[in-house]
Amino acid sequence: MNFVSVREFRTNPAKIWEKLKKDMEIIITSNGKPIAVLNPIYENDVEGTLDIIRRIKAVKAFESLQEDAVRKGLDKLTDEEIDKIIKSTRQQRKISGEK
Fold it and tell me: Residue 28 carries which DSSP code?
């Protein structure tokens, strides 16, 4: 992995772009902590690259939800308990006028 500080990125961008071509990814840091990842993107595949990034974000969000559910013990709920929670939530939303 190749790390570059925000300061270095700001003061010497040409060097960073050359590094990116060679290393194919650079981690940008601020005060020593990672804040962003730079990956090259090609003109003929902008949408494909963005689609992959969005998919990765969705997978990470789902994993986070799963971990949270396990921490809260929600992974042990029975189907009946889940149905009861859904029914109760729908009734509450109906009463309050939410959709």
Answer: E
Nearest to 28 by CA among 10, 41, 42, 43: 10
Beta-carbon neighbour count of residue 98 at 10 Å?
9
Domain spans of the chain, in order of start: 1-40, 51-99
Using left for φ > 0, alpha for ψ between -120 and 50, and beta otherwise, residue 31 falls in left
Give CATH superfamily name and number for 1-40.
YefM-like domain (3.40.1620.10)
Percent of the chain with pLDDT over 90: 89
Distance CA 24, CA 41 (A): 10
DSSP code for 24? S
| Per-residue confidence (pLDDT) for residue 99, from 0 to 100 | 65
Q: What is the pLDDT of residues 28-70, one digit of tens each?
A: 999 999 999 999 998 899 999 999 999 999 999 999 999 999 9
